[in-house]
Input
Amino acid sequence: MGIGSFTSKTFLILISLVFLAAAAGLAYVGINAIITYKQYEHFLGNMYVMLPSVIILCVAVFMVIIGCLGFFATIQESCCGLGCFITLISVILAAGVASLVLGLVYKDKINPELEKNMEIFFQKYDGKNFESSAVDFIQQELQCCGIKNYTSWQNTTWFKTNHTVPESCCDKNATNCSGDLKELNKIHTEGCEAKLENLLHQVLSFSMLVILGFVIIELLCLISLCVIYRKRESRGYEIL
Output
């Protein structure tokens, strides 16, 4: 029993450390996703798109608690602690699956909200108001111009008044760029909608991929813990 007990204890400590490391990884992914969404939240409208990222952060906090509980329960050889460890892993596994489902659901809802809100912001552009700052930010950050492409500006009040696109459309390496459409080599010609949608999809897809990996790890850990628990219980031994 000595070798078996030592092996079980080592395995459980390893699982606890894996959960602490996983919590750090999930926290990074969740925070990165939220920061990305917050930068462009004015164009998203539907804040439920951020829900999977919020769940990721909650799961990360929960996993820190689980990792600490598992570590101390193993060190102190607590039967009750191990039982709680298994229960909490089951809960966190369910949360991970829920986050994956939500990510799939809201991934397809980005485009309709994005197109509608971008149209509103670009139409209100005057170079001074809040909408203008948001539009300038996205055009400079994503190196794009207009909604579909640079010609989208031709339907706006700004272009009809100034006969140019905003200077935020200009390539950062271009000199003496005024936004004149006769100098297309000095401005970005790709639209912002497709670029922003692709960016948000990439962030969400990466988050879902990370969650899927941790869900698989959690499932394997849960199965292993249950096997250890059942073997110990059937032999009439203490848990550790």
